[in-house]
Amino acid sequence: MSIAGAALVDAAGRRMGVTRSTGVLLGRHLTVFSRNWTFFVTGFAEPVLYLLSIGVGVGKLIPSFDVGGHTIAYAAFVAPGMLAASAMNGAVMDATFNVFFRLKYQKLYDQILATPLTTGDVARSEITWALLRGGVYSAGFLVVMSLFGLIHSWWALLALPAALLIGFAFGAVGMALTTFMKSWQDFEYITLSTVPMFLFSATFFPASTFPTWLQWVIDVTPLYRGVVLCRELTTGQVTWGSGISLVYLIVLGCLGMVLVGKRLERLLLT
Amino acid sequence: MPYEYPSVTAAPQSPGVPAATDSMVHARGLRKTFGSFEAVRGIDVDVHRGEAFGFLGPNGAGKSSTMRMIAAVSPVTAGTLRVLGMDPQTDGPLIRARLGVCPQEDSLDPDLRVRENLLVYGRYFGLSRRAVRARADELLEFAQLTDKAKAKVDDLSGGMKRRLTIARALINDPEILLLDEPTTGLDPQARHSLWDKLFRLKEQGVTIVLTTHYMDEAEQLCDRLVVMDKGAIAAEGSPLELIREHSTREVAELRFGVGQHEALAARVADLADRVEVLPDRLMLYTEHGEETLAQVHGRGLRPLAVLVRRSTLEDVFLKLTGRSLVD
């Protein structure tokens, strides 16, 4: 930048760019979390443990597994599910509990809104932080998958951006829901929705085992779209359906983010 | 050794500056309602460059609501408001870029250390890392917190926290410093140290807008102030003007036995401009306290205790806003 003391909103009235305003808030979180990085470990360990116990352990009982006409190892079926779920969990954890704490107790957003930054900046950067957190878990998990020989296609390189997209959708929706929460008890609803999604979104077994009507329901849940997308990428079976998942997650994330901005305005700029 | 508050924008104004830039805050018929509750009921306010301006009033008078509107974090319900010549509705970020805000409750970032609070907050204003580092060290010095740079915010005393909050509000070298009840909850030493800091800022040309319900604070700091009550402005002027206009020069306080004050009030009513009956004393508002007292004695009245003193802003305040408790 230019001379010392030049603010992003300078004398000429230029506003700070989206990237920089997001960056300064991410910088705040990085400063904080550079001191408490240990809790990152738990979010990383969870999907790996599931992969070991169910993918590898239960997989021993399932000699071969048929997905869309292709035969793959059961672990290779479960792994992309865990990949998507870790992105979801990482993002949701941050966009719900941590956001609620910053919103209601730390009053962090009140501090930020006293500066040139806006509710849109807060929404964008908090969701970005959430998706990055999910993304770090997913990246680590992808490495584990490749070590276990569970990646069958170069398409898998795109599984990381896919995981970031899952984090984006869940971070945005999670934070939007959080702005409606009154107390910590309300977070039961978050658990109540993420756990069933984690168990039934074709993570451990294909959705085709369900009756048709239930398949329709599962079809439109966000984690299912994420799991299917990740699985198509890591097994190399990319279809037009992958595009639908892509669009679905992008739209969901954008809607969530806009809602977050509106809600913060309503809650804080009274 | 006196420390100079580092200032760029607050230089003394040059003669060529147009008059419009001298209006830091300009409000006409400013209103704020929350549902059916009218917090601010149409006030007119003008704050000029370099001034220390106070909003004085009991709790619930509408001071904080007004401050939030000026800080461009609370939409105006009706009326006109211009801050630094701009409309908060449309130019919020531009206004906030040139304001320093010290809220009523210290809203420091407890996850960050003392110095980090300044660094991170400066980044919110888009200052470069290098600029913000230099500025943070200057401000730590100013706030006498250099030794505490690496301390946790939660470990600071109340006075230190407030100094850090003010230092943080100065990170962007603001043209207006907004302080909402800056010394509430501080001990006398901390209050005086803070007044000293604010006075120095004012000398540097920073425009200060503050709310308070402490009369001594208003008298110490404010060039001009408005007394607010129930969302409206009850009086406006310098502390001296207000005293002159709304009170007498002196007050004689007479204490008699419990329960006698009501009855005795009638016997001294003609000796003062105004007589106020309190459960424990009579207050005689008069130009010359000692003379009035002599006349009281001349009527054969023997108070148990007397106090003759100058009128203060507190007398004005209580006259204008009443003695009943506001919850």
UniProtKB/TrEMBL annotation, chain A:
State the compartments where it is located: Cell membrane; Membrane
Q: Which residues form the ABC transmembrane type-2 domain?
A: 38-267
Q: Which residue ranges run through the membrane?
A: 37-59, 71-92, 130-148, 154-177, 189-218, 238-260
Question: Which of UniProt's keywords are assigned here?
Answer: Antibiotic resistance, Cell membrane, Membrane, Transmembrane, Transmembrane helix, Transport
Q: Which GO CC annotations does the UniProt entry carry?
A: ATP-binding cassette (ABC) transporter complex
One Gene Ontology term of the biological-process aspect is:
response to antibiotic
State the superkingdom.
Answer: Bacteria
**Recorded topology in the membrane:** Multi-pass membrane protein
Output one GO MF annotation. Answer: ABC-type transporter activity
InterPro entries found in the cross-reference section: ABC2_TM, ABC2_TM_bact-type, ABC_2_transport, Nod_factor_ABC_transporter
For this protein, the record's Pfam families field holds: ABC2_membrane
Family statement drawn from the similarity comment of this UniProt entry = Belongs to the ABC-2 integral membrane protein family.
Spell out the protein name for this chain. Answer: Transport permease protein
Organism equals: Leekyejoonella antrihumi
